[in-house]
Amino acid sequence: MSKRQRWATKIGLILALAGNAIGLGNFLRFPVQAAQNGGGAFMIPYFVALLVIGIPLMWVECSIGRLGGKHGHGHAAGMIHIIWANPAAKYVGALGLFIPFIIALYYTYITSWCLAFSVFSLVGSYDGLTTRAEMGAFLGAFPGVTANQHFGSVATAYLAYVATLGFTLIVLLGGVAGGIERLAKTAIPMLFVVGAVLVVRVLTFGTPDPSQPDWNVSHGLGFVWNPQLGSLGNPTAWVNAAGQIFFALSIGWGIIHTYVSYLHEDDDVALTGLSTVGINELAEVVLGGTIALTAAVAFFGVQGTREIAAGGAFDLGFQAMPVIFQRVPLGDMLGALWFLLLFFGGITSAVAMGQPMVALLEEAWDLPRRRAVALLGAAMFVLTQPVIFFHGHGFLDEIDYWVGTLALVVFALFEVILFAWVFGMERGWREIERGAYILPARFFYPVIKYVTPMFLFTILAWWSVTDLPSKLAMHGVSSEARPYVLAARLMIVAVFVGIALIVR
Question: How far apart are the C-alpha atoms of 293 and 301, rounded to whole Å?
Answer without folding.
Answer: 10
